[in-house]
């Protein structure tokens, strides 16, 4: 804040021997001023351009503090003032001039002549007058200001009021809420540093520390504070009163208690203005300025949740005591009194909203008037009609205007459904949920799931409605990535819908059941999907048919692992109007293409398709009233696109999604009902831990991801367990790797990519246990299939396994050629990285071969391998396979790894020391020694050393 030496009050003459210190009387600040730099600049510019600027806003919005800060920063530019005139406790408007005279220290009489002198002096000296808290004296203040401004062209006025003064030339400036911290997304707050970058959370944190100096902030507390700030709409007084409660409440308790925040938000500073010691008193102050009709309107608006339009408000609030013709004027007054907020909305759809604390206040007034039930019933009828009219238009085709309307009112729709459930009218609630089914998975899946859980248990629901509720749950679940729940719901819907003769619900249930079966039984799901698509076409369900066509492409491309057959199906789906014109379905199709390209190592194409996916989702996100960034991150196509971009970056040794807190996004997505997104971001974080050589951290992430994968689907669980095995191998722990791999259900290995990964790990484990023959068998089981399907990354890994096998067999030339061919495949696709547990042994093998062969020969064989493309390399590996050339016993039967063990034993190393040098476990060393003892026909380490001494190089 400005220099406090300027905030001194002094008499205007030498009375009592005191001299004037400064021609202003701004009060010294008693607490820190937080944020508002943009607002200070904006108001400062307005004062430079207008002679009257009024900062408007609700009680507790920080109008006085902002005005004082602006005035303090302008003080050095003023010939006279700034003069602060606090009108909060002035009840008699006739005493306004006297209050100004006293505040400015002008020695004039309190008569008409003295008033004229005051006007002339303030104007002549270009005074800046700060008239604070004007709302209860608006007519008197307006008259005074108008007279002052007309008395000369020099004086300027900065006023604060809950209501504009409506004086000619006035620039009314509504004070915005303090900057709110985001609840999720790439900038989500996870610690104290993040909280301090947003004014509302910084203010809360500072005031909470004043109440409890030892307050500690961890990730959970940071999330609680974010929620508190957002629930209180960034209102400074509410935040300060809430923060004061931290002296006796943990922030998590405080967050849970905010449902009754009016009771909680009390206990302000005893020396402060009484109306600012509680939020109740602050709102009472505004309420008392209203007419009876305006009070009726305010309390009835409490029925709305998070905003409304004028068209929706009129039929709801226009009951006894409020003429429909007066609603607009009364609403305008509430806006001008800062009790209702107005904004242009999306696409010019004007909306109004009560701050949460005002809504709670109005709810109490509604109950006191015994109108709550009747107004809630009218509210329900309004949004039931909206759902019935607009919902089917989203069912038949994508309609942006309809989606804008319904997504803006999702809270009102949810409240209406809750009202019906509370009144026992479950059938109407079920119909309303069916009509709005395409909304919930995109914006509120967790809420929909809770409602459906309640509805399907109601005995009065007939089979048709019960079937439709299961279809809705399957639709919402698939949209949100809760694939296991969605599949169970679709399966439950089929017999119910068929028994009820509901053709539409039956067709949609069959499509969803077949679609969600793809992740477990892709071969069976394909024919089922084709049949379900025909069923939808016959039922006239173009949305269901389009969904089925996209999922058929998903089934064949990803879960059957055939890009050559699947990609044309995706393109065919995109050519269908029901898919092409629907950005959500089209985004699904493009994210599948992105994943397909990533699996084939075509990273450039993968990223292009991911970006196309995100561009389509932006069409939906840009019209969401709130949570646009969260939607982009957590929708199924959005999270898959993020995974693909992140995975591509990791393979090129770059951090994934720079600036995104992957852990925070994963946690929030899981809490908000998007389990697939929760899984994918956690999985991506584990991959990045491997990239940065933190396998222990990666294992911890994969353990969490494995739990999340159970809801996302079995395919994801299998993949996670295999990558967990890779992470265990990275720390030289084949036992833990085998445990991870043992949890893989063979039935979940539905694609060539998964099977190839599985074989890579089994081959690696076999090599670590000294069984090169088994490793060779494992690698060849999927090598040709992976190459034929174009799965470049896994094909390269299988070649690298075979390079180690041939090296183990004493064929370093072939080993170098195979490793070089794999390196070429990686380089051509910019696949710089792979699992450290897999690549590290390859690098050690090549280092050894370079030493044994010599630099020149090594480079010759390396260039020979590099001349092979992937298909030629696979053919070379196949030709190289045959009877192992090494004897079964004697010195020449020892593998290169066993020779290393022998040399280290001869040098006197212990098993733990050998394990450290070879980057293997102690159990692996024991396995190698047992093999050495058997091949050399010896029983002790001393005998091994003696045999080694007898051989050159031993």
TrEMBL record:
Domain annotation HTH luxR-type: ranges:
887-952
Show the Pfam families listed in the entry. AAA_22, GerE, HTH_77
Q: Which GO terms describe its biological process?
A: regulation of DNA-templated transcription
One MF term from GO for this chain? ATP hydrolysis activity
Name of the protein in its database record? HTH luxR-type domain-containing protein
Which source organism does the UniProt entry give?
A: Leekyejoonella antrihumi
Source organism phylogeny:
Bacteria, Bacillati, Actinomycetota, Actinomycetes, Micrococcales
